[in-house]
Amino acid sequence: MAEQIKVGIIMGSQSDWPTMEEAANVLDELGVSYETRIVSAHRTPDRLWAYGKEAAGRGLQAIIAGAGGAAHLPGMMASKTRVPVIGVPVQTKALSGVDSLYSILQMPRGYPVATMAIGGAGAKNAGLMAAGILALQDPALAERLDAWREALSASIPEEPERG
Ligand code: RP5
């Protein structure tokens, strides 16, 4: 039987992939399976609607949504599904991603998006956040996530190298 995919990584454009890849990479490291889709709030609104409508029924437990500029994808997805949406503001050339950040962050009461930092750090943290949500019900994943966190902590030197 095919493995149940529990995390969706969606993005507004192919151009978002270099950022969103960081979410995919950390989920790979943690052994979490996921799917990736291009779903644009403006260019493919029907695809967005269908994805959101089917997300819970398909067993998704977290949706990582990245977009840049007028970044309406995460918020629109949150309006269509109760599956937790983790928003990643993609860095833009014109406004450095502050436009993306504000577009994703300022949701009205009732339809939350868990908004990460701008760019790759945000995408990586989105993957970790999704893993943390899944780990609540998956003890083996919880162990892997704890080990991942400990390894990161252990990799930080106590003293800076002098240049
Ligand atoms: C948004 O517009 C996408 O999320 C992307 O960040 C931005 C630019 O898209 P492209 O013009 O590169 O396709 O919808």
TrEMBL record:
<dbReference type="GO" id="GO:0034023">
    <property type="term" value="F:5-(carboxyamino)imidazole ribonucleotide mutase activity"/>
</dbReference>
<keyword id="KW-0413">Isomerase</keyword>
<comment type="similarity">
    <text>Belongs to the AIR carboxylase family. Class I subfamily.</text>
</comment>
<feature type="binding site">
    <location>
        <position position="43"/>
    </location>
    <ligand>
        <name>substrate</name>
    </ligand>
</feature>
<feature type="domain" description="PurE">
    <location>
        <begin position="5"/>
        <end position="156"/>
    </location>
</feature>
<dbReference type="InterPro" id="IPR000031">
    <property type="entry name" value="PurE_dom"/>
</dbReference>
<feature type="binding site">
    <location>
        <position position="13"/>
    </location>
    <ligand>
        <name>substrate</name>
    </ligand>
</feature>
<comment type="function">
    <text>Catalyzes the conversion of N5-carboxyaminoimidazole ribonucleotide (N5-CAIR) to 4-carboxy-5-aminoimidazole ribonucleotide (CAIR).</text>
</comment>
<dbReference type="InterPro" id="IPR024694">
    <property type="entry name" value="PurE_prokaryotes"/>
</dbReference>
<keyword id="KW-0658">Purine biosynthesis</keyword>
<protein>
    <recommendedName>
        <fullName>N5-carboxyaminoimidazole ribonucleotide mutase</fullName>
        <ecNumber>5.4.99.18</ecNumber>
    </recommendedName>
</protein>
<dbReference type="InterPro" id="IPR033747">
    <property type="entry name" value="PurE_ClassI"/>
</dbReference>
<feature type="binding site">
    <location>
        <position position="16"/>
    </location>
    <ligand>
        <name>substrate</name>
    </ligand>
</feature>
<comment type="pathway">
    <text>Purine metabolism; IMP biosynthesis via de novo pathway; 5-amino-1-(5-phospho-D-ribosyl)imidazole-4-carboxylate from 5-amino-1-(5-phospho-D-ribosyl)imidazole (N5-CAIR route): step 2/2.</text>
</comment>
<dbReference type="Pfam" id="PF00731">
    <property type="entry name" value="AIRC"/>
</dbReference>
<dbReference type="GO" id="GO:0006189">
    <property type="term" value="P:'de novo' IMP biosynthetic process"/>
</dbReference>
